[in-house]
Amino acid sequence: MAIGTVLAFMTFGYVIGLRSERQRVNNRQLSARVDELHLKSVTDGLTGAFTHGYLQEILEIEIQRALTEKSPLSVMIIDIDDFKRINDSHGHLFGDRVIKETAETLSANVRSDDILGRYGGDEFVAIMPGADADTALHVASRARSGIAKNGYLATISVGVATFEGSGVETPAELLHRADMNLYQAKHDGKNCVRDYCKLPGVPRRRHDDAKKS
User: Fold this and answer.
1) Measuring CA to CA, which residue among 145, 172, 173 is closest to residue 158?
2) What is the model's pLDDT at position 150?
3) What residues contact residue 67 under an 8 Å CB cut-off, 6+ apart?
4) What are the backbone angles phi and psi of residue 163, rounded to the nearest 5°?
5) Between the N and C ends of the chain, which has fewer C-beta atoms within 10 Å?
């Protein structure tokens, strides 16, 4: 084979290899961009926590998994105490800062497997796969203590509810139980955690809308 032909084949192989590598790079970049866009679609812009709609979808999946594995699943609803007063007294920028700091402190205090999201306004939800009632209370108390020490004039109240992995319970029902317990925490003076409710007639809120975003 002539030297020129050999060189031609080598050059052709180099060009093909270069194009293939560029295609792989482009595919990786495209995949990374898709992942980035997906993450943006399911996370809150201010806090980086997951969105209401994403939490609802994940909670439905986790309830089904808890049933299959017969393992517990806990949920925390977390509300910043007197947030309207904080907002009115210090302004919306400060209020946003409090929400952001609260999300960061919550994220640092929940377990690595827990799914934390902003449920709306000054309210957060943490979905806790595999967490029994005692574990959920421990984590909730740790988060409450962490928020109380953050220096932003804010405290939180937390309602905790646990699904034991048997029977029938919808995401809306589990969230409503946690919500009732949050009402009890507010009634008991705020800045506390409750996993029970003795108050009659606690209203059912927006939890039935499983697709709200």
Assistant:
1) 145
2) 76
3) 165, 166
4) -100, 125
5) N
Can you read off the two tokens belonging to residue 65?
């998994």
Count CB atoms within 10 A of the CB of residue 99.
Answer: 25
User: 123-129 and 156-163 as β-strands: parallel, antiparallel, unpaired?
Assistant: unpaired
Residue 209 has pLDDT above 70, yes or no: no
Packing angle, helices 52-69 and 171-187, rounded to 10? 110
- In the chain, the percentage of residues whose pLDDT exceeds 70 is 76
The full 3-state SS of the chain, as one line of letters, equals CCHHHHHHHHHHHHHHHHHHHHHHHHHHHHHHHHHHHHHHHHECCCCCCECHHHHHHHHHHHHHHHHHHCCCEEEEEEEECCHHHHHHHHCHHHHHHHHHHHHHHHHHHCCCCCEEEEEECCEEEEEEECCCHHHHHHHHHHHHHHHHCCCCCCCEEEEEEEECCCCCCCHHHHHHHHHHHHHHHHHCCCCCEECCCCCCCCCCCHHHCCCCC
Hey, how many other C-beta atoms are within 10 angstroms of the C-beta on 66?
A: 22
Q: What is the pLDDT of residue 164?
A: 94
Cα–Cα distance, 171 to 65 (Å, whole number)? 13
Share of the chain above pLDDT 90, in %: 66
- Is the pTM higher than 0.90? The answer reads no
CB atoms inside a 10 Å sphere around CB 92? 9
State the chain's mean pLDDT as an integer. 84
